[in-house]
Amino acid sequence: MSLMAYWIDNEWNLHKRIRNFFQVSNYMDETIGQIIENCLLEWGIDKLLTILIDNASSNNMTISYLKNVMKD
Questions:
Q1: Is the model's pTM score more than 0.85?
Q2: Triad 68, 23, 39: Cα angle to 5°
Q3: How far apart, in whole angstroms, are the C-alpha atoms of residue 58 and residue 63?
């Protein structure tokens, strides 16, 4: 799995980067959500505007997990 980041800087320039590649040991429960949370904390990211995902059923749990840990 890979995580990509898109952001707009102070001069309104769009940036995009592949931030990380990682292997997911299982697609059950909150595993993916925890991996994403750890990556975000490592990078110092504490605010998200959008998450783009495919339609895998495990993503419902991932989004629920991230909503709960990033309430603010």
A1: no
A2: 40
A3: 9
